[in-house]
Amino acid sequence: MNDGTVNRIPMLAAGHATVDFYQGAVPALVPFLVAGRGYGYVAVSGIVLAATLLSSIVQPLFGVLTDRWRMPWLIPVSMVLAGAGVAAGGVTDSYVLTWLAVALSGLGVAAYHPESARLARIASEGSHVRMSWFSLGGTLGFASAPVLVTPLLAGWGLGASPFLLLPAVLGAVVTLPAIRALSGGERAAEAAGLVGGPVSGSDDWPSFVRLTLVIVFRSVVYVGLSAFVALYMGGGAAGAVALFVLFAGGAVGTVLGGRLAGRWGRVRTMRLAYALAVPAVAGVVLVPGPVAYVFVAASSIALYAPFSLHVTLGQDFLPTRVGTASGVTLGLAVSVGGLASPVVGAVAEASSLRVALACLIVFPVLAWLVARTLKDPAPVPARPDEGRSAPSPA
Fold first, then answer.
1. What would the pLDDT profile of 198-232 be if each residue is shown by its tens digit?
2. What is the pLDDT of residues 171-186, one digit of tens each?
3. I want to staple 253 with a disulfide (CB 3.0 to 4.6 A). Which of 109, 158, 304, 334 is the partner?
4. The pLDDT value given to residue 285
């Protein structure tokens, strides 16, 4: 084990937390846009769509680019871009400008994930547990968003949103040493002839496509909950608590999933998680009162337990295209669900928010059914000698 490499996982996790903070910040903005600007369900679901549309379309392209070229500089740039978009979204004076600002944030998110996941793969040395810690960073970023955004905007209004750029700048500064060390180690290893040869393993596209379907189904239910659970629980402080429970439960699920995969295997853990997600999501909709928070937490744990496993499975299904696999499994996992959020919003306006959320119950069922068709592949390193000790300028 290269301890210097592994010890950079916390820094990469901090960067992941920074970027995913802005994905969590968009749902936290929703109640304030409803109260302050009079947006309806369809309008605010369009804002959620703005945060995810560009990410869904562009993220695989960034994955392809990182398979061809090393672009470590893209990581801090994308962090600042994600923060700038959300910061501007609260102070624009029209719906169109708000939509475009939040879409810019989504572009930053899309640019971040493939390259960061590639470096995290090197730093984790193929460990499911260490990769889950990297994923945990993103989950904690989500969880912290309502805790920071709600008090800020409740006290100072939407005009205080420019302060939300500060975490992006701080995250970029914290992550830079790890990025420089890991990319410098790659260059030194390539110069020494330790890496850069033919990639081992062959791509299993049919399994990867089925895994992508699982990710899509998971994303629809999770993004649907994150967009509307605050309103469903009554908005205000109650809504902020619901979002925090939803996002914080994901932190538990992320770490739990990595540990269970070490014992039972990734696919078996994934199947169990989606099976448990079905009654958990149903409980959010069907159980009234404060007990619903328990089911919000259970839903989050079940939906996040396979999150980091999606990443390593995708990389092992496509060992010659790690960037592409990472762009889909890590970034698209969050973003693609936003494409369905306007449909959820339309159902809510046509009937009720409860009926709209009840429609989400079917998606963990579909994820479980497709997961049953997958088999756990043997881990395959993306490059010969990847993860071994290499000269580093750090």
1. 455 688 999 999 999 999 999 999 988 988 888 88
2. 999 898 888 888 765 5
3. 304
4. 92
User: In whole angstroms, how far apart are CA 174 and each of 47, 67, 113?
Assistant: 30, 25, 17
Q: Which tokens go with 171?
A: 């995250």
What pTM did the predictor assign? 0.72
DSSP readout, 91-136? T-SSHHHHHHHHHHHHHHHHHHHHHHHHHHHHHHTT-HHHHHHHHH
* Structure-token match 């004076």, residue found: 93
Helix (H) / strand (E) element for 269: namely helix 266-286
User: 104-130: buried (b, 16+ CB within 10 Å) or exposed (e) per residue?
Assistant: bbbbbbbbbbbbbbbbbbbbbbbbbeb
Contacts of 235 by beta carbon, 8 Å cutoff, 6+ apart = 31, 34, 35
Joined together, the tokens standing for residue 15 give 């960067």
Determine what percent of the chain falls in helix, strand and coil, rounding each to the nearest 5. 80, 0, 20
DSSP 65-85: HHHHS--TTHHHHHHHHHHHH
